[in-house]
Structure formats: C-alpha cells, structure tokens
Design goal:
This protein has 8 helices and no strands. The chain is an all-alpha fold.
Length: 180
C-alpha cells in the first residue's frame, strides 16, 4: 500500500479522510464525495451535456477510488480529482464523437417553461465557449451554488484568482449574451 507523504495536519483537511479511504473506509470516501461532487459536476458541465455530466460524476469518483493509492500527497487531492474529471470528459467526448451524432431536437417555444429552458441552454452554451478557467469557475458559482471561498478551497486556487475568474468570466458572458 502506497502511503501519503507526511505533512502538517493544517496542510490538508482531507488527509485523515484520504488515509481512511486508502485503508478501505467507504464512509471516508463518501465524505470526500460529498465535499467534491459539486466541483466535479461543474468541471464536467463545462464540457459535456447536463445528462451526461450526472453519470460521469459517478465515473470520476469510481476512478478516483481505484486510483487513490497513486496519490502522492493529500494536498494534491483537489487538483488530482479535477484532472480525472477533465480526462473523463475528454474520453466521453471522444467516445461520443465515434457514435453517429444526433442533433438535439429544438425546444418548442409554446410555453414559457420551454422558453426558459431554451434560455438556460443558450447561457450554458455561451459559458462553454469561455476560456476554461472562467468556464469552470462560473459553473461552480452559478450552477453548483458554490461560494468564492468554497471554490478556492476545493480547487486550490487563491481567493483572489477565483474573484478575478468570476469577474472576468461574467463580463465575457454578458458581452456574449448581449451580442446574441
């Protein structure tokens, strides 16, 4: 069994959970899931359809559970999990391109609910067109409801970087939506 390198307890609040998960504690791994599922979901939403993102979240955590022994330090867990999520999204994209693509049926504009749904899809399309750093941060904030400090803690970004990414991302999104 590969052991995590020793580090100060303050360096990573996840270290005890990761150590417990390494020893087979599924409750500890479940707690890691609870802490990071929204972040993983946001990363996936930035790259794949919402319905596909739901399934891929599970795939990401299954992969993480299988690969946990390869993690070098507990402090690297958030970035490592982000990388797994991005790789799963890329694998999904490659796999789905190999299948015969079906165009999404256009949403009917007969009811205000459908129109609101269409607007939400339009906004998500525009968000997906933003640079990766803004795209992921915006989805964590706007879709997953994560706070700036929570995004910083989960992703390893500084709070200042999160603020800048959110500010610039929102500005770019507004410009794209106004140009529609």
């Amino acid at each position: 069994m590969m052991q995590l390198m020793s580090m100060p307890a303050e360096a990573s609040p996840e270290e005890p959970l990761i150590r417990a998960a390494l020893s087979g504690d599924r409750v500890a791994f479940g707690e890691l899931y609870v802490r990071y599922a929204r972040m993983v979901h946001a990363i996936l939403l930035a790259r794949v359809r919402p319905g596909d993102a739901e399934d891929l979240v599970q795939d990401v955590f299954l992969s993480a559970m299988r690969q946990l022994r390869g993690l070098r330090t507990a402090a690297s867990f958030p970035g490592w999990l982000c990388a797994i999520a991005r790789n799963k999204a890329m694998d999904h994209f490659r796999q789905s391109r190999a299948l015969a693509p079906l165009e999404d049926a256009p949403l009917s504009k007969t009811s205000s609910g459908a129109e609101g749904t269409q607007d939400a899809f339009l906004v998500m399309d525009r968000v997906r067109g933003l640079p990766e750093a803004y795209r992921e941060t915006l989805i964590m904030r706007l879709v997953e409801g994560m706070t700036g400090p929570e995004i910083a803690e989960r992703t390893g970004l500084t709070p200042e970087s999160v603020r800048v990414n959110l500010c610039r991302g929102m500005k770019m999104l507004r410009e794209q939506l106004e140009a529609k």
